[in-house]
Write a structure and sequence with these properties.
The protein is an alpha/beta fold. It is built from nine helices and six strands. The chain has a six-stranded mixed beta sheet with strand order 1-2-3-4-6-5, sandwiched between helices. A hairpin with a 2-residue loop joins strand 2 and strand 3. Helix 1 packs across helix 2. The longest helix has about 40 residues. The relative contact order is 0.14.
């Protein structure tokens, strides 16, 4: 099976494709949130820009933020489990939510803010591939507010069976696909929006703009991995130095073990 050079999980491709083809983005968002496309009267991408200097930042996150009928919606792809994703999502929600408050504005006017995460790892202990979180009272399940919603779509839990034409599953199957054969199988179903998405993918992945941005992005990912590796190595070195110092101090071994465990 031929591996794809770039998948729909590639964050550079994700941002370019859905900014350049907003009708595809609208269809995707409608399927993820299970809302009617015809019911939408306002659909605006508020962060369409992707300057090369930002892409080259090793900690840049390429999400898409939209205003949909007065609601803030942030859509992001996350490939690796870095151990802090729930905290990152909460931070993203707070950032998008608080940035909506105009100077001197009333809190009551803050819009409903929805974070959608398509993730390529298992985050939650459930079998379902989709989970929705809102702030609820823990015993009565009474909702505190409707202004906070977090959606997680876990690709690893999605069935490989895409024979049916469930549009949500087809969209997620596109993101899950790693081979040309998987894309061809989706295209063979002759679902118009899937054919358009794959055609857009083929157009974007051969464009000079994408290749240059992906080069910068790949370098950024390499720099990020190198920086994290260096931090881990330094932490190990410091721990070893501390252990050696404690062993040379003449303290009883039991005290040394306790001190190492509490720091």
């Amino acid at each position: 099976m031929k591996k794809l050079d770039y998948t729909f999980k590639n964050d550079t491709l994700f941002k370019i494709l859905f900014v350049q083809y907003p009708d595809l983005l609208k269809d995707l968002v409608c399927e993820l949130l299970q809302i009617s496309k015809n019911s939408i009267t306002q659909f605006e991408i508020t962060n369409p820009e992707m300057p090369s200097e930002a892409v080259g930042d090793k900690f840049c996150r390429l999400d898409i933020i939209m205003i949909v009928d007065g609601k803030n919606i942030s859509l992001e792809i996350q490939v690796r489990d870095e151990g802090d994703y729930p905290e990152r999502v909460l931070f993203q929600w707070s950032r998008v939510y608080s940035n909506s408050l105009e100077s001197g504005g009333d809190y009551i006017k803050l819009p409903r803010t929805i974070i959608i995460s398509i993730i390529n790892f298992n985050l939650l202990g459930c079998k379902e591939f989709h989970s929705e979180f809102r702030p609820l009272e823990v015993t009565r399940h009474e909702e505190l507010t409707d202004k906070m919603t977090l959606h997680f779509f876990e690709l690893k839990k999605l069935s490989n069976d895409i024979i049916d034409k469930n549009m949500l599953k087809l969209w997620l199957a596109l993101f899950k696909a790693n081979t040309q054969e998987e894309l061809d199988k989706i295209k063979s179903l002759e679902v118009e929006i899937m054919e358009r998405a794959i055609n857009a993918y083929n157009t974007i992945t051969v464009s000079p703009e994408f290749k240059e941005l992906e080069r910068l992005r790949a370098q950024a990912r390499h720099n990020e991995a190198a920086a994290l590796r260096y931090e881990r190595e330094q932490a190990i070195i410091e721990e070893r130095k501390k252990t050696i110092k404690l062993l040379k101090s003449g303290k009883p071994l039991e005290e040394i073990i306790i001190e190492l465990e509490t720091n």
